[in-house]
Design goal:
mainly alpha, two-stranded antiparallel sheet, MetI-like fold, 2 strands
Length: about 280
Amino acid sequence: MKKSQKIIKTVITYVFYAAVFLLFFAPIYWVTITSFKDPGDMFVYPPQWYIPNPTLDHYKKVLFQTMMPIGFRNSLFIGFTTVLVAGILSALAAYGFSRYRFKANQPLMLFLIITKMLPASVLIVPLYVMMNNFRMLDTFQGLIGVYISINIPFSVWILKSFFDAIPADLDEAAYIDGCSTVGTFLKVLLPLTVPGIVAVSVITFFSCWNEFIIALTLTSRTAIQPMSIGLYTFMTEQGVQWGPITCATAIAIFIPAVLFLIFQRYFIAGMTSGAVKG
C-alpha cells in the first residue's frame, strides 16, 4: 500500500511539473509558430498548433523594413551598459555595507529596499521632470542613469549577503600579506562573489530588456528607443500587425533566453547561495 501511494505521489508530482511547464511554454510556442505562418493561417478555426505553410516574410519585414534592428541594438547597449555600471557601483556599496559598521548602516539598507518597492507609476512624473531639467530626455545617458538607479538597491542587497558570508579573517590575512583595501577587494573578495555578481547582472539585464513604461515616457526618438517600444509600434489604429509583432516578440524572447542559458549555472548558484546566506 505504501509503495502504491509513493507511485501515485510521484505520478501526481510529475503531472504537476508537466502542467506548469506547458502553462509557461505554450504561449512561447504559439508566438514562435505564428511568426512563421502566412497571414491566412493565423486566424483559422480551430487553431493550428503547427505551421502548414512556413514563411520567412515576417522576419524579412521586421529585420529589413522596420526599425526593430535599431531597437534591439539599443536594448543590448542599454542593458549591457546598465549591467556594467550598476554592477560596479553595487559591488562597491555592498562591500562598504558589509565591512564597515556605522550608525546609518541598517537605516540605509532599509531605505534601499523601500525604494525598490516603489512602483514605476509613482516614479514616472518625478523622473520626467528631473530628466527634463537636466536636458537628458531622449538620451542614452538619461535612460541608462534611471535604470542604474532602479536596479542598484536590489543588487546591493543580494551582494551584501555574499560579502557577509566571507570571513573577515580573509581580509586580515590579505592586509598582513601587504594588500591594500582596494587590492583585498579586487583580488580576494570579488572573485568569491562571482556567482552573486552574475545573478544580479542577469536580473538587471532582464529588467532593462523588459522595461516599457519608463522608456516610453523618457524617449520619443526611434534612434534612442529600446526594443520594447518598437514592439508597441506594431499596434496601430488599423489593428495589430500580428505577423511582425509575433516575429519581433520571438526574437525578443530568443536573445535573453540564449544569455540565460550561457550563464544559468552561475545564476542558479548565485541565487541559491544568496538565499542561504541572506
